[in-house]
Amino acid sequence: MERPEVLSYKESVFKSLNAMPLAQRFLIAIDLNEDFPAALKNAGFQSDKPSFFLAEGLLPYLPSEDCVLNLLSKIATIAAPGSMLALDTVSESFLKSHWTQAFRELMSREGAAWQFGTDKPEQLLEHSGYTNVRVTQPGDFLPERWPFPSIPRFVPGIPRSFLVTAQRGTVPA
What is the CATH number of domain 50-168? Predict the structure, then answer.
């Protein structure tokens, strides 16, 4: 599921590489502002069976916490109990740090401003109806592949990246 222009680009790359899928794929060209749960169901998504959802490289581009909560809640409405969600995000400190200013300015000039970050991804996911939330920093997960030290989270003001997994629990109240 991607915006039509992004999906088209990705497909052109796959074709140029003669890449063949190893599993059945359903391509859904849609903007997340549209009714993507209905589009998934129309494409055959079975909301009564546990699924895996991946939101990779997306959350920092969203304009607000409300927008992120809306996205996570929409996913939760179609995710059967036991479904898994994985995502990456950055900390709010990342968006405010002088150490990341040049990167953020570059992204803005390219029309891809980073706008959302949270220092408390656990609360964000739990608020949206997920349980068993696990948050790690890339330096904790694969230190040999991450060039930055992993500073404990209780140290304030440090720009961070988070890798998050969570399980869909019961329907939120």
Answer: 3.40.50.150
